[in-house]
Amino acid sequence: MKKRICQIFAALLFVALTLSLSACAPKEQQEAPPADTAGGYAGKTVILHSNDVHGEIMGYAYIAALKADFQDKGADVILADAGDFSQGDPTVSLTKGADAIAMMNAAGYDVATLGNHEFDFGYEQLVENLKAAEFHVICADILQDDRAIWDPAWMYEKDGLKIGFFGMDTPETQTKANPSMTLGLRFLSHNDIYTCAQEQINALRADGADIVIALAHLGVGAESAPDGHRSVDMYRNTQGIDLIIDGHSHSVMTEGEDGEPVQSAGTKFENIGVVVIDNASKSIERHYLLPTKVTENDEIVSELAKDPDVEAKAQAIIDRVDAEYGEVFARSEVLLNGERNPGNRTEETNLGDLITDAIVWKVLQEDGALSVDDDHVVGLTNGGGIRASIQPGNVTRKDLNTVLPFGNTITVVYVTGAQLLEALEASTYCAPEEIGGYPQTFGIAFTLDTTAPYDQGEAYPDSTYYSPASIQRVTITAMNGQPFDPEATYAVVTNDFCAAGGDTYYVFKNASAQFDTGIVMDEAVMEYIGDALGGVISRETYETPRGDQTIVLTREADEPQAA
């Protein structure tokens, strides 16, 4: 029986012998006596790339070992990253991204661009972190005082070959990070992105670049399409890009839907991107993705080799975090869904229910904290802020901090029913495609008709998202079991990110009143599980979503389909 196994040396030998874009070789070929390929990559330059690592720091041991193996076979190797390395789980978030830089230094990275999550701890913290970077940081489309905040491009040059890299970060950063964290920065958007990219291409070509590569954190997600700032949009509106190494949408791809030269390795080192360049012809020979692990029946049957020194550095960080956050505080009888799609960016989930239950419960513990009756208190958190699932069994502080890694605090905003309805309409505009602003809610029963068109209105200020010109898709059917009143004032218990206008929640920023409780979300959820649930996330309460959201997926359906 044939099994797909991707051991590092066998996979690389197979690639070298067959020139295949496949990263895996049949088991029989791997077990055959290997040919002598020493020097088999002489005269080649290999770019190994990652994106959206999000705290999977052990992955750096894979890419470091892969780099060494290609070098042993004669290649010159460049390590590149397409952003979102600073945030994701406690292994990097506890040091506000500093340990991510340390791990990239250990692995030997050469160049990286910025992702939106690099700004989660604020621009000043990012500047401080990157002082320690031993690699080039490039980003052309984020400006301060009309100047790029970092070098926009970097030229690699060796033995007559010149490879020009320029960096781009998504303009969604201005609302994907807490807007208060990026004050004073200007994020290029719309046609300005194309103009900026073309300027970098032209400058690199003028400087003699044989190959131009965009190191981009733009993605190809549907929520990025209306503003035209996806990587494929940039490619279609420029000339002279040989390859885009992409991030942001966590896509696993070696080309765009229309054949655009866009490659992205997914997230958390599920793959490593490989680009092989022939030095003599000064052209890209091939590019492909190499899985770091191969599983069968949920068991790892093979994985790439790890660099022992980098592995030891990663394990030291993991051990330190486990010692601090490994305490078991609860038990779950169910799998709590923390996935993106299907999950928290597309539909109501049991984990979204748990979190919104918890934040509303916590606020209501304080007598007199709110100026409306309890039946006018609802909860909402953005699905993009929920970053991982919780497995059945023991639950640790680390588990919950991995689910909610951003350190968000609970904030209350006072809005009218009409404003809340606008927020729901704006935050589901591309559903059933995933969107980070997708609302996980408490107390709000609503129907979302995904077959109805989104009536796109004016762009929200300082945002890549658009207000609805009219309400076409969302109908609120009840608020805490009571009739919905568009003119009534409701207290929405949310997070400080949404309250500041993050994602699609501009109306919250302009709420009639709001206050930050200072209570950290993950701590509130732990307290709720301990005090209100007795330390047990029960099957009876959380096996399935509570059913507040009804999603219509097709016009032909006789009945709406519950999410």
CATH class of the largest domain: Alpha Beta
Strand ordering within the main sheet: 6-5-4-3-16-17
Q: Indicate the structural class.
A: alpha/beta
Number of helices: 17
Number of beta-strand segments: 33
Low-confidence stretches: 1-36
Q: Hey, roughly how much beta strand do the residues contain? A: 25-35%
Name of the CATH homologous superfamily of the largest domain: Metallo-dependent phosphatases
What is the helix fraction of residues, given as a range? 25-40%
Can you offer a commentary on this structure?
- The protein has 563 residues and is an alpha/beta fold.
- The chain has two domains: 4-19 and 36-316, Purple Acid Phosphatase, chain A, domain 2 (4-Layer Sandwich), CATH 3.60.21; 327-562, 5'-nucleotidase,  domain 2 (Alpha-Beta Complex).
- The protein is built from 17 helices and 33 strands.
- A hairpin with an 8-residue loop joins strand 14 and strand 15.
- Helix 3 (59-72) runs parallel beside helix 5, helix 5 (98-107) packs antiparallel against helix 10 and helix 11 (350-364) packs across helix 16.
- The longest helix is centred in the middle third of the chain and has 18 residues, at 308-325.
- It starts with a strand and ends with a strand.
- The model is unreliable at 1-36 (pLDDT under 50).
Please supply descriptive tags for the structure shown above.
17 helices; 5'-nucleotidase,  domain 2; 2 domains; 28% strand; alpha/beta; 563 residues; single chain; 6-stranded mixed β-sheet; Purple Acid Phosphatase, chain A, domain 2
